[in-house]
Amino acid sequence: MQAVLRIANQFRVPLWPISCGKNHGYGGAAPRMPGTVVLDLNRMNRILEVNVESGYALLEPGVSYFDLYRHIQEKGYKLWLDVPDPGWGSVVGNALERGVGYTPYGDHFMMQCGMEVVLPSGDVVRTGMGAMPGNNTWQLFKYGYGPYLDGMFSQSNFGVVTQMGIWLMPEPPGYRPYMITFEREDDIDQVVEILRPLKVNSVIQNAATIRSLILTASINATRSQYHKGPGPLPDSAARKIMADQDIGMWNFYGALYGPPAVMDTLWTIIRDSFSKVRGARFFTPEQRRHENDVLKHRALTMRGVPRLTEYSLVNWVGNGAHIGFSPVSPIKGSEALKQYRMVRDRLHQHGFDYMSVFAIGWRELHHVVELVFDQSDAGEVKRAREVFEVLIQEAAQARIWRVPHAHHLHGSDRPHVRLEQRGDDEAERVAEGRAGSQRHPRARQAGYLAVSLSEGMTCER
Amino acid sequence: MNSRRYFIGMGLSAASAVVLLRGTWRLGSRDLAVFDPRFEGAEDLARQIAEGGSVRAIGADATDLALWLQSRALVGEPVHLQGVTTGSVPFCLRQLVPHVSCMTRRLDRDLFVWSARLPAAKA
User: Fold this and answer.
1) Least CB-CB distance to B2: which of A297, A314, A376?
2) Do B91 and A311 touch (CB under 8 A)?
3) What was the pLDDT predicted at A371?
């Protein structure tokens, strides 16, 4: 790796490092700039260490969530992963993209501890406590001494991470997934307002999600099974889906972890809180009548079992591709409602259905909108790009920060990146175009100078 | 290849799809044909394609099938899979098992007929 980077630097060859190349929501394997050489780290796939006592693993970038899960199961370790959806990507890659999962360890970069990085110069750096030879807390103490460098290697192009520590959750004594359905679109305001204190006070323990009707339905149904005409799904079809699948306009998926007494207490608070929303209904997996019910799938994901189930969402329109648009806001009901209405209206105006999940972070709300379209329909592709531009502009005008979320179109072109100005030619040699590392005049226009973003439509084409 | 009209105009009926697949892949051992039970006719077509081989319903979730194919790839066993499913299934197979050769034909808005072949590992 050192030799490769030295040579690339010497001859000014741009590189695009990938781990498994399957964290599609954060960019995937396709480089942005013509002439870039893909640096495929897939075969650097050793699980260097799993420490059960302290709950961590030290991994190379080619280790996927499936690999790590399989290893832990085979060894019988009482440890859980935290997995994204779908779960086929690299553990290291996803954490470096600051990806998320759905257990209490759902903030993957927060759970990262210590990394080894090869710089564009070929030098090797070990961050945190790893900088001291023979140290035994490299994967235990995140910060070490002095400036904290690890963040510089996330969503950036300053080096190639060749080893990374990740904390793993000890298997809890109890686990209870649950689902709460809400009947009306505007319930999102009240739901999020109830949710905020529960999350801030850690009553909601995990990275819970609120999924829209169609996103939930898409796991088990296609649009044409309910509506064959153009334009957004009519209300009558939406109500039929709700009845058929026994889901709401919004569907909250959470889980309880810990001893039974703790789970009982937390559940009492959660249930009492959300019961204030008129028509709210509460479910456990055993109460769901369909074999492939989404709660049963979420129940696996919220306990760290990697699956590909979520990819069924692209079947909603047939031959589907998807673009992600993910504004971030405070956990406020008024914000969620405002964003929902804005995005829904723009998507409907362009003939698309609204599909989203509100993912709840420690203090922030991610509105992950999935724009699904038929990639073989040139008109639909064009409209998808148009509405995506509209969403970006409106979010910029509303000063809504966007989370890097650049889906690619099943191997074809994918949304492109905004940028910051960089003067470091050396840094730009690695992953040019990744996470805002390329100059783009429109960044100035949209006021993105201070933020690195990795979504948006390429303007060169 | 941009609209439903195209497929109707092509007259790509289920029977044509079977002929198309036969013409492209040499007949040999068939490990499994899968279908999505949500769609009428999918099972019948899968049984036609399987020609007496194993047939199984899988729905839209490709996880178990993809992991099984990956396990075969790791030990170098040849596999021939066929399916009448939504598009995410062959896509997931291609993503998780890069060495698989996959051919896909769209039957209608939602449904695809596909064939995936994993060669034996070279000695």
Assistant:
1) A376
2) yes
3) 95
Under an 8 A CB cutoff, do A314 and B91 touch?
A: yes
Q: Would the CB atoms of B96 and A297 count as touching at under 8 Å?
A: no
What is the distance between the alpha carbons of residues B64 and B50, in angstroms, rounded to a whole number?
20
Low-confidence ranges of chain A (pLDDT < 50): 403-428, 439-461
Contact residues, chain B, for A307 at CB < 8 Å? 61, 63
- Judged by CB atoms closer than 8 Å, whether chains meet at A221 and B38 is answered as yes
Please state, in angstroms and rounded to a whole number, the distance separating the CA atoms of residues A368 and B46.
Answer: 36
Q: Return d(Cα A239, Cα A321) in angstroms, integer.
A: 25
Chain B: residue nearest A320 by CA?
Answer: B87
Nearest 10 degrees: Cα torsion A347, A349, A351, A356: 20
Q: Are A277 and A188 in contact (CB under 8 A)?
A: no
Residue A45 burial (C-beta neighbours within 10 Å; 0-12, 13-18, 19+): middle
DSSP string, A131-164: GSTT-S-TTT-SS-SSS--GGGGSSS-S-EEEEE
Chain B residue with CA closest to A380: the answer is B2
Q: Are B62 and B84 in contact (CB under 8 A)?
A: no
Asked if residues B30 and B80 have their Cβ atoms less than 8 Å apart, the reply is yes
Residues of B with CB under 8 A from a CB of A: 1-3, 38, 59-63, 66-67, 70, 86-88, 91-92, 95-96, 106, 108-110, 112
| pLDDT tens per residue across span B37-88 | 999 999 999 999 988 889 999 988 899 999 999 988 888 888 999 999 999 9
> Between chains, do B92 and A311 touch, taking CB under 8 Å as contact?
yes
Cβ of A88 and B2 within 8 Å? no
CA distance A432 to chain B (A): 24
Return the number of CB contacts < 8 Å for A and B.
Answer: 70
What is the Cα A136 distance to its own chain's centre?
31
Strand partners, B112: B85, B106
String of DSSP letters for A45-72 = --EEEEETTTTEEEE-TT-BHHHHHHHH
Quick check: pTM over 0.90? Answer: no
3-state class (DSSP) for residue A251? strand
CA of B97: which chain A residue's CA is closest?
Answer: A88
State the Cα–Cα distance between residues A396 and A411, nearest whole angstrom: 28
Taking every pair of C-alpha atoms in chain B, what is the biggest distance, in angstroms? 47
Give the whole-angstrom CA distance, residue A164 versus residue A240.
47
CB distance A312–B86 less than 8 Å?
Answer: yes
pLDDT, averaged across chain B: 79
Please indicate whether, in this complex, the C-beta atoms of B61 and A320 are within 8 angstroms of each other.
Answer: no
- Rounded-to-integer distance, Cα A174 and Cα A407, Å: 35
CB A175 within 8 A of CB A259: no
Nearest to B59 among A22, A292, A311 (CB): A292
CB contact under 8 A, B66 and A224: no
Q: What is the pLDDT of residues A110-126, one digit of tens each?
A: 999 999 999 999 999 99
Handedness of CA A316, A322, A325, A326 (dihedral sign): positive
CA contacts within 13 A on the Cβ side of A371: 35
Query: What is the ipTM, given to two decimal places?
Result: 0.82
Distance CA B105, CA B25 (A): 13
